[in-house]
Amino acid sequence: MGKTWATLGVDLHVEPAGSGVRKGLTEALREAVRSGRLAPGTRLPSSRSLAADLGIARNTVAESYADLVAEGWLTARQGSGTRVAERSVVPPAREAAPPRREPAGPAWDLVPGRPDLASFPRAAWLKAARRALTRAPHEALGYGDPRGRPELRTALAGYLSRARGVRADPERIVVCSGFSDGLTLLGTVLRRRGLRSVAVESYGLDVHWNLLHRSGLRTTPLPFDALGTDTRDLAGARAVLLTPAHQFPMGEPLHPDRRAAVVAWARRTGGLVLDDDYDGEFRYDRQPVGALQGLDPDHVVHLGTASKSLAPALRLGWLVLPPSLVDEVVSLKGEGGWSTGALDQLTLAEFITSGAYDRHVRSARLRYRRRRDALVAALATRAPDVHATGIAAGLHAVLRLPPGTEAAVVQAAAFQSLAVHGLSRHRHPDAVVPHPDALVVGYGTPPDHAWSGALDALCRALP
Ligand SMILES: Cc1ncc(COP(=O)(O)O)c(C=O)c1O
User: Fold this and answer.
1) How far apart (Å, rounded) are the C-alpha atoms in residues 448 and 455?
2) Closest residue (by CA) to atom 5 of ligand 1?
3) What is the pLDDT of residues 289-328, one digit of tens each?
4) Which of 340, 357, 374 is where one domain is finished?
């Protein structure tokens, strides 16, 4: 069995190999020096203390050191103990690797999905982190409740009911690593319950469809017409994933008749609605549309995330669950090893309760609104054949293009060093819907100083 030698303050695992202890120790030390695990000049422990560490005779260590000194791996000098020889490691000859060329990224990024990372409230977040850690009980550093920290669940329950109209009880909130983790948990639970498919919108994000596929579920697209996603005929479905407050990517809220229809269907059949409320805070021209979950908390799961309001890197999201799903989701979360760091959860709890979250959202809303207004004004003067839709909310707009021009415009944008998505990449492969030509322009992404340059490049690419 190997032993760990900690006398030097470094943990060096020594595995005396072969027949004798002395031979084994010598080989282990030689290998440690050869491989560089023991750096040149490192002072080795005295033979007495290493012998005590390893539980072997002092003479055995002294003889082993003497062998390695004779071989040139170690040096021994009166008064300075035994050290690793200065030039004992000959690094293996390596072919000089050709310098790596990073492909140059686009100069401007208008791909939807990210907020302005440059305006992440670093100072306020640090302040909240310091306060949260100072106040946290020792117990908070353990594994804790798989639902997540109670401080955050309580803060979220208050915030979500106040700002999003969610009927939230901390006991029914599960903190997860972003929306994607929450969707994966729900997909797995639904599959275990015997579901084979989930109805989705004809336009959406392929990453989310793929997460459901990985849970063993098919995704079947709902019809989409002039009023948006059509929820009137959900016969045969047992679960549906929607973006009711702000359809992604089309940008309109779910029509009130269709909100009512999907809730009526869920009540009638015991079906489940997954309400992806990814950017509900960002609405510019009137009050935000309340979360669908408020209409029927027994049949609607609310899925929220800090990815748009703060930053995707936090990987913080939450589920507000109907009572009938809580146990299954919580036990699955426990099986999966928790996966959401408690310190960031405590920080977000502090950030919300101190009012910093509201302040940040308010200033981000102003900034995005200004960008949206600039986008609409620039289109009116520089690209009058292009109409922006879905502009009342969120961090992206859909620019309707003349028929048959989408691919050419995406290519023209690439020539302008501008990354932007065509609408066609957000269409479900099985969707039977018209194919309008359009761009999905994320105006949240560039930092403030790059916004006018990005807008300029966009206008140059438009017909
Ligand atoms: C429609 C939609 N839902 C949810 C999310 C959030 O995903 P996550 O919380 O996993 O970052 C995004 C982010 O891009 C999104 O566009």
Assistant:
1) 11
2) 278
3) 889 999 999 999 999 999 999 999 999 999 999 999 999 9
4) 357
Does 348 lie in the same domain as 334?
A: yes
Domain range for 42 is: 3-84
The pLDDT tens digits for 57-94 are: 899 989 999 999 998 999 998 887 899 998 755 666 66
Does the beta carbon of 248 sit less than 6 angstroms from any atom of ligand 1? Answer: yes
- For ligand 1, whether the C-beta of 224 sits within 6 Å is no
* Main-chain dihedrals φ then ψ at residue 4, nearest 5 degrees: -105, 130
Number of domains in the chain: 3
* Phi-psi sector, 304: left (phi>0), alpha (psi -120 to 50), beta: beta
Per-residue pLDDT of 228-260, as tens digits, reads 999 998 988 999 999 999 999 999 999 999 999
Same domain, 322 and 247: yes
* 285/272 Cα distance (integer angstroms): 31
Which tokens hold the place of 250?
């089309």
Residues 365 and 353 in one domain: no
Q: Which two tokens stand for residue 431?
A: 């969707």
Domain boundary residue, one of 309, 332, 357: 357
Q: Are residues 310 and 394 in the same domain?
A: no
| Residue closest by Cα to atom 13 of ligand 1 | 113
Q: Compute, in angstroms, the gap from residue 70 CA to the centroid of ligand 1.
A: 64
* Position 150 pLDDT exceeds 60: yes
Q: Is 276 in the pocket of ligand 1 (CB under 6 A)?
A: yes
